[in-house]
Specification:
- The complex is a heterodimer of chains A (265) and B (396).
- Chain A has 265 residues and is an alpha+beta fold.
- Chain A has a single domain (27-263), classed as outer membrane lipoprotein receptor (LolB), chain A (Clam).
- Chain A contains four helices and 13 strands.
- Chain A has helices at 2-21, 26-39, 139-143, 260-263, and strands at residues 46-56, 62-72, 82-89, 97-101, 109-114, 119-123, 150-160, 163-172, 179-186, 192-199, 204-216, 220-230, 236-246.
- Chain A has a 13-stranded antiparallel beta sheet.
- In chain A, strand 5 (109-114) and strand 6 (119-123) form a beta hairpin.
- The longest helix of chain A is centred in the first third of the chain and has 20 residues, at 2-21.
- Chain A is globular, with a radius of gyration of 22 Å.
- Chain A starts with a helix and ends with a helix.
- The model of chain A has no long low-confidence stretch (mean pLDDT 89).
- Chain B is mainly beta.
- Chain B has a single domain (2-395), classed as Porin (Beta Barrel).
- Chain B has one helix and 21 strands.
- Chain B has one helix at 2-19; strands at residues 28-41, 53-67, 72-83, 91-102, 106-113, 146-155, 158-165, 186-193, 203-212, 215-225, 230-234, 239-244, 246-258, 261-272, 275-288, 297-307, 316-325, 333-341, 347-358, 361-370, 387-395.
- Chain B is globular.
- Chain B starts with a helix and ends with a strand.
- The model of chain B has no long low-confidence stretch (mean pLDDT 92).
- The chains are: A alpha+beta (265), B mainly beta (396).
- Chains A and B meet through strand 6 of A and strand 1, strand 3 and strand 4 of B.
Chain lengths: 265, 396
């Protein structure tokens, strides 16, 4: 009888085990996966890369834009990274330099050097939903990669292309976002595979596909292709990272306002 | 003479630097554009007998190279123009022709440089380092390169700059056939200076600037030949005689960036010759992003400037402007606004449109329409110079 009880307890404990797991709310589970996915791309210290942006209109006409950039990882987990972007094409913007100091809960600090004006201007960064260089990529798609900028919810699992993904819903918790919600598919290595963006009216606006994942330093996953299909205007933007190198030892003073002129013309 | 020696020395030095590098390893950037322009004036021939149209070609070329793993940089930035009507508007200038050496926290710079001081969109009242080319643009925003030796010290408390500037350059005014131009010509043979060293006076400036949270702050002092001369009518020649006093100017600039609002302030106190004056200019810029659920932005700019000199041309002026940016693939934008003299009835409307029409072509349309201008206003000479200019830039 006693033995029976013992077995019964073990049985009950095992039977309950999945319930203990799911005692985590959908919000907690979403946050946990989003955090793991975010941390997948952390620890790079600094990064240099060239970037190609291909803009394709519904008729299939293509134009290519080239920029190069440096990023400095913020070792303070409560503050954002710093990045410096140099514009190469179209030719009329060649020599333009943008410096961003991103923040998690505050507006980013941004400065722009425009060759035609020959001056460094501090610019407003509340332009979250604005298009980056006429593309389908919004500024918030670059600056809003930190999981803490959203509220998360785990929706369940979904199978796409014979692969099982976690399906998460997220809502921006900063002002001036162009999105009411996003739905992300994340694979079992915590890499984001696909994100659907819904506009302020709740209509599907665009879908982002993250491709060409490369494992850097044996621990950091980064997607080297980002494809955005705008469902409403039928435009496509393909963003490619070329020659990406991590932990190259960039001086952190390169990311100060006064250093913009070292890159400027 | 000395200037020629120094320029040739700089050339030889740069050649030495470039030659000392492994030729195959030299990485450089070179780009530029050529821009034909056509202008038509709405009021027919000008008040001073100028033509009702003009054609012009503007060019700009940039060359940059980094040496020794980026510790040294050479920048050459040349601009030039060939103007059909105004010989004073045909020029070539090395706006930048400089060598920079980067140490840990210090940057040493030798050569021609453009230094912009200020935060405002319209009234940059203490932007004094470079001489203005009024023939190129009567607003004075187009500048010539200034030869200098400059040191920058980047400290955690902010940036300290020191500028030592030999080779003063006289202001260039529109010539007899230039439009717009002053009622009288500026006599180049009678230029006078307060300083006994005249144009050989070595000017100096210091600036401290820092970023504190949402604030970008700068304090500067300039001592040297004023870039802006006093112009006095010579009753004999019926031309204007230019006199350059010594200017000792202290300035403060602040920009505060609060979300979609930018607040800007420039202020100065200066002793120009024997007289002290005070000036202040500032305003705000607010941007509506994603106008009516589109990708376009609309910026609203309001700026005002005051100067306590009654005879100063811009002593009580305001600007109201709208900047529309479409954020499309063609980078379409339009800036339009009104400049008004608050103490008189003079006013001017302007509009500047631009659009990329091909990857290497961009079109610009600039319009300026003068309203009624008081006869005693400095801009009265330009009253009939309302104009439309079409520019097409081809980039290389």
């Amino acid at each position: 009888m006693k033995k029976m009880n013992y077995a019964k307890i073990i049985f009950i404990v095992f039977a309950l085990f999945p319930f203990y797991l799911s005692a985590e709310t959908a919000e907690e589970q979403g946050l946990r996966i989003a955090k793991a996915s975010y941390e997948n791309g952390r620890g790079f210290t600094d990064m240099v890369s060239d970037q190609l942006m291909i803009l394709i209109d519904p008729k299939g006409n293509e134009v290519t834009r080239e920029v190069s950039g440096k990023t400095l990882e913020n070792l303070d987990p409560n503050d954002g990274d710093k990045s410096l972007t140099y514009f190469k094409t179209p030719k009329d913007v060649e020599g333009t330099v943008m410096l961003s100091h991103t923040h998690i809960s505050d507006d980013d600090d941004q400065w722009l050097y425009l060759p035609a004006l020959g001056r460094v201007k501090r610019i407003s960064s509340s332009n979250k939903s604005g298009a980056f260089m006429g593309s389908e990529v919004a500024f918030e798609d670059f600056s809003g990669t930190d999981y803490r900028k959203y509220e998360w919810k785990f929706l369940g699992e979904e199978i796409e292309n014979n692969e099982t993904f976690y399906k998460l819903e997220s809502y921006p918790n900063y002002e001036n976002s162009g999105y009411s919600k996003r739905i992300s598919l994340i694979d079992n290595l915590n890499r984001t595979y696909k994100v659907d963006f819904y506009d302020r009216k709740g209509e599907l606006l665009k879908t982002l596909y993250l491709e060409d994942y490369v494992l850097y330093k044996d621990k950091i996953w980064m997607a080297n292709t980002m494809k955005v299909e705008n469902i409403q205007n039928k435009n496509i933007t393909i963003f490619k990272w070329l020659n990406r190198e991590l932990d190259v030892g960039i001086n952190k003073k390169d990311f100060e306002k006064s250093s913009i002129l070292r890159l400027a013309d | 003479m000395l200037k020629k020696y120094i320029i040739s020395f700089l050339f030889v030095f740069l050649q030495y630097l470039v030659a000392s590098q492994n030729a195959a390893a030299i990485d450089y950037k070179a780009y530029g554009f050529i821009q034909p322009e056509i202008t038509t004036f709405f009021n027919g021939d000008g008040r001073h007998g100028q033509s009702n149209s003009n054609q012009s070609i503007f060019v700009k070329g940039t060359f940059i190279t980094y040496l020794n793993n980026g510790d040294q940089k050479i920048t050459i930035n040349t601009t030039g123009r060939i103007d059909e009507k105004d010989s004073e508007r045909s020029y070539i200038d090395f706006q930048k022709f400089k060598y920079e050496q980067y140490f840990d926290d210090i940057t040493l710079k030798i050569g021609n440089e453009l230094i912009f001081w200020g935060v405002n969109e319209s009234f940059n009242i203490f932007d004094i380092i470079n001489q203005s080319n009024l023939a190129e643009d009567i607003s004075g925003t187009k500048k010539f390169g200034q030869p200098m030796i400059s040191l920058n010290y980047n400290h955690s408390y902010g940036n300290f700059d020191l500028f030592i500037m030999p080779f003063f350059k006289e202001r260039i005014f529109p010539g007899r056939n230039g439009r717009p131009r002053l009622a009288l010509e500026v006599d180049k043979s009678t230029v006078a200076y307060e300083s006994s060293s005249k144009k050989n006076k070595i000017d100096a400036a210091v600036r401290y600037s820092t970023v504190y949270d949402d604030y970008d702050i700068g304090i500067a002092h300039f001592y040297g030949n004023n870039r802006s001369p006093e112009l006095n009518v010579n009753p004999l020649s019926q031309k204007l005689d230019a006199y350059y006093p010594i200017l000792s100017q202290t300035s403060l600039d602040i920009q505060s960036t609060k979300g979609a609002w930018l607040y800007k302030l420039e202020t100065l106190t200066a002793k120009n010759g024997e007289e002290r004056h005070f000036g202040i200019a500032g305003g705000t810029e607010y941007t509506i992003y994603g106008l009516r659920e589109t990708t376009s932005d609309l910026g609203i700019i309001v700026e005002y400037t005051f100067d306590d000199r009654n005879d100063f041309a811009f002593n009580n002026e305001g600007v109201l402007a709208l900047r529309w940016t479409k954020n499309d693939i063609k980078s379409t934008s339009l800036l339009a606004g009104l400049v008004a003299d608050m103490s008189g009835s003079s006013n001017r409307f302007f509009a500047e449109f631009e659009q990329r029409i091909r990857d290497d072509l961009k079109v610009f349309i600039d319009m300026s329409i003068n309203g009624e201008i008081d006869a005693d206003d400095f801009t009265y000479a330009f009253e009939e110079d309302s104009q439309l200019t079409l520019k097409i830039a081809k980039y290389f």
